[in-house]
């Protein structure tokens, strides 16, 4: 039963609503002003490049053509890294309705500059390009010029300069109107949804291939054929199995040939000095051990690295932490059925394509600041599944590990459960996280096309925190967190998530709102949603919105959606699930006028969310019913 507001509180709410009306109207945009001039690109709201691609371009002196757009109903200048990104944004349905029409569009101008495509096709120029109006430029397409994300569209103010460029780099010259008819495959979020199944199947195939390295013909048994584990490994022929009987073995092991090392009931104790098992060969299996006595070095010394890559510091520092098992430049590594007690990392994998970690338990430090990562995956895709990570910094940390699958794991009392850095096109699915200090799943550094599906995060600082673009976030459950989910990722699809009993359900953080948010259930959150600066966020797609507990009071509809729109950021609507008086206040004439203005005045769209077709019933009824039953049982207990 929601408490009733006092008369004083009702009038206070009405005063807030009216003051917001006056404040918002003052931000209306003057669309009759003179044509704006280009600004420094660093002063734009930038979209369209992953942090990894940006670092690669900077490190290799690659020039990426850019665009900047001034919109009639948007207070910021939007900068697009890549001409294809700008074209896709400007031509997508509904874009002009949300941002207004483009007052001016400028693109990089490579005229009068020594521009070339190098031996590898990378676009380079000795001096930065200037700006030219998009409809005055000539564009070279389908040539050999490339940027880190793929083929480059290269603009020139002077057609003769464009023609000279095609003589060395190939391609054809087209104008702006023709360019806008081009289709740039940017792997939209809906396409990522279709990739969830194939990604699961790809992970299954990777696991099946790696499992072939767990059982080979036995060649050497420790204690019978060799005195130590290392002696047995040295003596064993390639593609055979070394059996380690039950017992404790105080040693560190190096495997430099394709072998299976099997030790059900055996303990490897490294003596507290460094990594216990190091693998440098392809097709190795390490199974069945308890591993203890791992060193406590969590960060290696980057000054000892000869790696000149832009990420050498991170690779060397994180990739050299002490661990139970470390794989380096070893494909197909299989690590399974081991238990680890570690003050540092559990499994470290550097450039190990096709590596699989499954049925592993990593017990880290009680205070995450004292420990490190359960699994570190770097530079190649891996699979981590059916494992348990207790304590330590991050359960699974990925760095430039595009295409990785992290699924069906349990995370307890870490800093982050799953932490993606510079990692795109990955699958994070069906994991359970409890008691994470900061977040169950966090995605940083603007990657693309990640799928975050079916995860269950509870009793954590935050639930699922995302950056990047063109990702798919669906069928997740987040309960009892400070903030269940953020929409920092842009051009992404959020659907069929259940956000239950959190302080904040969702934080709309992107300055350029471009996400689809539909068929989610917001239930019993203190605040269903909050929004940062930016134009109106519309959480409705194809006539369907989301279910907001409390919005069912907006009666009058007879179908699956309610008759009236709902705004979780509105000073009145956001209290509908907390007090009956908010329902009465919502019908006040002044508040109705406020809502009408919200839909017509561009300046008033700043920092608001509206669902134009809120659902009459939960979109995920079975999940909601289960959570309500669990909550009732906890209350009874």
List keywords for this structure.
single chain, 637 residues, alpha/beta, 24-stranded parallel β-sheet, N2O_reductase_NosL, repeat, Pectin_lyas_fold
Helices and strands in order:
Blueprint: H1 7-25, E1 45-47, H2 51-59, E2 66-71, E3 77-81, H3 83-91, H4 95-99, E4 102-109, E5 115-117, E6 123-125, E7 130-133, E8 138-141, E9 146-147, E10 150-151, E11 154-156, H5 159-169, E12 172-174, H6 176-179, H7 189-211, E13 218-221, H8 229-235, E14 240-243, E15 247-250, E16 253-255, E17 259-269, E18 277-279, E19 285-292, H9 312-319, E20 325-328, E21 334-336, E22 339-341, E23 347-350, E24 355-358, E25 361-363, E26 373-378, E27 382-385, E28 388-390, E29 394-399, E30 405-407, E31 410-412, E32 416-421, E33 427-429, E34 432-434, E35 439-444, E36 451-453, E37 456-458, E38 462-465, E39 472-474, E40 477-479, E41 483-486, E42 493-495, E43 498-500, E44 504-508, E45 516-518, E46 521-523, E47 527-531, E48 537-538, E49 547-548, H10 581-586, H11 589-600, E50 609-610, H12 621-636
Parallel strand pairs: 1-3, 13-14, 14-17, 15-17, 16-18, 17-19, 18-20, 19-21, 19-22, 20-23, 21-24, 22-25, 23-26, 24-27, 25-28, 26-29, 27-30, 28-31, 29-32, 30-33, 31-34, 32-35, 33-36, 34-37, 35-38, 36-39, 37-40, 38-41, 39-42, 40-43, 41-44, 42-45, 43-46, 44-47, 46-49, 48-50
Antiparallel strand pairs: 2-3, 2-4, 4-7, 5-6, 8-11, 8-12, 9-10
